[in-house]
């Protein structure tokens, strides 16, 4: 069975990265959700970010 | 005028929340301008335009929060600052004692059985977060836009390799295992599966199916570019395969704007020759090809929902009796002046806007728009309507740095007033999309605007007709019936499908 079809048979468990409202909506529906408090990587410094990307 | 700029280092908040705060604070008496934003380059430009910058602002980074205010008095500024603090604190407290991890890795340590990442970070960081989620074995719904086509292709190829869903970028809606993700309606569960490349089109179809009494098994969003030649329909094809193999799905609906020809052929190739019934709706596209393969096609979103319902349940599709619109077109026409001949559609949903244009083109030679069907119908300026005009106000040029019109009605209300000034406008056509993610009470924004417009029109001895396409289900958090009643009480004609709304609008202006 494909992973997508496996997902259809499981309880949906969400990691929410970004808009907190989406986390709130899921909670109101009693859906299991972990919210990531996102911070721009490298403090949002574009130069540093591009250097970090190259290092990967 | 007093200016005040506060910078909070390393305090990241999402844009939807900050827009809500900015709007609330702007309403405080004595406050002339309020911009509460993360210090991105784009937002710094916005601050420059309203003359609220200093050296510190220019040096701030996208993880710094800027609170920039202009007010008439020290008191007003203080009240505004207190309000911002209060709203930020309230949000933090609402998160309770719950610990929020800072990274996906940490989240997965806390909840190792997580199976889907819903990602809505700013576009420049989105592809990297999605890649990490796929690498960790999670299915992904990527709500963020402003992700490059190159990144989209890479992400979808990675997902394909791993057999995972990569819904998006710019995927506004999905319903997996009955759970609405981002902008989605509270639909009933049933045996109709949908793969949709157009967000509000998919919302419209899944909502109508529910109001007919049917239900959906899964709604897989692909993002609007999936059926472009470059992406090759990777996610739509994977979605089709998954729904073909799903015991809970009997009928499969495909919805998209017209795909690239070679992609359409590939998709249809995948769909033919299975036991499942398919209903194909590529808004405005020539579907003779699909018909050749014996696939059922539909020409509107409403028809798509009806055909899917009938194929699945073997009963005639009929919307509830109370949804029927009973109006006397002749009487309405009598209230208009001869110069009032045009429709102005102000849409929040791109696919609904597309559908309106396609339907109107059957009757009118030209329908102008910012997302026009042909180059010659493209509005030279998005702010200036011409004759019959239908605008997608959810398009990037309206939403850069501003909230989406499904969440915030400010831009649309302003545009209503602008359109109402014209002596040529007979009908203002609006979509109102309900469901999770959308505005909590659209009628509360539109009713005062409709009333004010009517007063102005009446003072000039004329009238302006409002026609609303109300998209949603009776179970949506906004209360469908209440929204309908309130809009109707204000004098709007409320149709429960976009097709019907467009047809009513056209019948009013047709000679």
In short:
The complex is a heterodimer of chains A (56) and B (511). With 56 residues, chain A is α+β, with helices and mostly antiparallel strands.
Regions of chain A with pLDDT < 50 over 5+ consecutive residues? none
What general outline of chain B do the C-alpha atoms trace?
Answer: globular
Overall pLDDT level of chain B: 93
Number of helices of chain B: 19
Radius of gyration of chain A: 17 Å
What is the CATH topology of the largest domain in chain B? Rossmann fold
Protein name (chain A): FdrA protein
Protein name (chain B): Succinyl-CoA synthetase alpha subunit
Pfam families (chain B): CoA_binding, Ligase_CoA
GO molecular function (chain B): succinate-CoA ligase (ADP-forming) activity; succinate-CoA ligase (GDP-forming) activity
What does this structure look like?
The complex is a heterodimer of chains A (56) and B (511). Chain A has one domain. In chain A, strands 1-2 form a two-stranded parallel sheet. Chain A has 56 residues and is of the alpha+beta class. The mean pLDDT of chain A is 87. Helices cover 45% and strands 18% of the residues of chain A. Chain A has three helices and two strands; from the N terminus they run αβαβα. In chain A, strand 1, helix 2 and strand 2 form a beta-alpha-beta unit. With 511 residues, chain B is α/β, with parallel strands linked by helices. Chain B folds into four domains: 93 residues, Gyrase A, domain 2 (2-Layer Sandwich); 70 residues, Rossmann fold (3-Layer(aba) Sandwich), CATH 3.40.50.720; 133 residues, Rossmann fold (3-Layer(aba) Sandwich), CATH 3.40.50.261; 186 residues, Succinyl-CoA synthetase domains (Rossmann fold), CATH 3.40.50. In chain B, 41% of the residues lie in helices and 19% in strands. Chain B contains 19 helices and 18 strands. In chain B, the strands form five sheets. A five-stranded parallel β-sheet of chain B has the order 10-9-11-12-13, with helices on both faces. In chain B, strand 7 and strand 8 form a beta hairpin. The radius of gyration of chain B is 24 Å and the shape is globular. The model of chain B has no long low-confidence stretch (mean pLDDT 93). The interface between A and B is large, with 38 and 65 residues. Chain A: This is FdrA protein. Chain A: It comes from Thermosediminibacter litoriperuensis. Chain B: Pfam families: CoA_binding (PF02629), Ligase_CoA (PF00549). Chain B: InterPro entries: CoA-bd, NAD(P)-bd_dom_sf, SUCC_ACL_C, Succinyl-CoA_synth-like. Chain B: This is Succinyl-CoA synthetase alpha subunit.
């Amino acid at each position: 069975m494909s992973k997508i079809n496996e997902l259809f048979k499981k309880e949906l468990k969400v990691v929410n990265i970004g808009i907190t409202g989406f986390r709130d909506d899921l909670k109101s529906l009693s859906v299991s959700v972990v919210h990531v408090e996102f911070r721009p990587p490298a403090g949002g410094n574009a130069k540093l970010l591009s250097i970090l990307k190259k290092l990967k | 005028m007093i200016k005040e700029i506060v910078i909070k280092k390393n305090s990241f908040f999402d844009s939807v929340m900050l827009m809500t705060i900015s709007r609330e604070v702007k309403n405080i008496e004595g406050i002339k301008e309020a911009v509460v934003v993360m210090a991105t380059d784009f937002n710094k430009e916005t601050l420059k335009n309203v003359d609220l910058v200093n050296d510190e602002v220019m040096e701030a980074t996208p993880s710094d929060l800027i609170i920039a205010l202009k007010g008439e008095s020290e008191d007003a500024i203080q009240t505004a600052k207190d309000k911002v603090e209060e709203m930020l604190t309230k949000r933090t407290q609402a998160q309770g004692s719950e610990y929020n991890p800072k990274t996906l890795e940490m989240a997965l340590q806390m909840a190792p059985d997580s199976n889907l990442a819903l990602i809505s970070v700013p576009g420049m960081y989105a592809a990297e977060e999605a890649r990490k989620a796929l690498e960790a074995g999670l299915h992904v719904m990527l709500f963020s836009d402003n992700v490059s086509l190159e990144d989209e292709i890479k992400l979808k190829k990675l997902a394909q390799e791993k057999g995972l869903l990569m819904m998006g970028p710019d995927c506004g809606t999905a319903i997996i295992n009955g759970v609405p993700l981002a902008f989605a309606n509270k639909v009933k569960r049933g045996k109709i599966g949908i793969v949709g490349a157009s967000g509000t089109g998919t919302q419209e179809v899944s909502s109508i199916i529910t109001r007919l009494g049917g239900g959906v098994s899964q709604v897989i969003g692909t993002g609007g570019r999936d059926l472009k030649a470059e992406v090759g329909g990777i996610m739509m094809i994977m979605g089709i395969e998954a729904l073909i193999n799903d015991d809970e799905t009997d009928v499969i609906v495909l919805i998209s704007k017209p795909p690239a020809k070679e992609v359409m052929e590939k998709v249809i190739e995948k769909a033919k020759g299975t036991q499942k019934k398919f209903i194909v709706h590529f808004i405005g596209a020539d579907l003779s090809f699909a018909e050749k393969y014996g696939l059922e096609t539909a020409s509107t979103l409403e028809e798509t929902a009806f055909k899917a319902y009938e194929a699945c349940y073997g009963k005639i599709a009929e919307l509830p009796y109370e949804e029927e619109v009973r109006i006397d077109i002749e009487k309405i026409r009598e209230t208009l002046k001869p110069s009032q001949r045009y429709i102005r559609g102000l849409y929040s949903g791109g696919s609904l806007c597309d559908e309106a244009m396609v339907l109107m083109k059957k009757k009118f030679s030209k329908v102008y728009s910012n997302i026009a069907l042909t180059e010659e119908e493209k509005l030279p300026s998005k702010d200036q309507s011409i004759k019959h005009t239908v605008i997608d106000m959810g398009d990037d040029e309206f939403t850069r740095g501003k909230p989406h019109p499904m969440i915030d009605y400010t831009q649309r209300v302003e545009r209503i007033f602008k359109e109402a000034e014209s002596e040529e406008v007979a009908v203002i056509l609006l979509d109102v999309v309900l469901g999770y993610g959308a505005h909590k009470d659209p009628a509360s924004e539109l009713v005062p605007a409709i009333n004010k417009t009517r007063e102005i029109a009446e003072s000039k001895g004329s009238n302006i007709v409002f026609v609303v396409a109300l998209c949603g289900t009776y179970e949506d958090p906004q209360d469908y019936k209440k929204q309908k009643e309130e809009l109707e009480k204000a004098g709007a004609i409320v149709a429960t499908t976009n097709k019907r709304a467009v047809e009513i609008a056209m019948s009013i202006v047709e000679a």
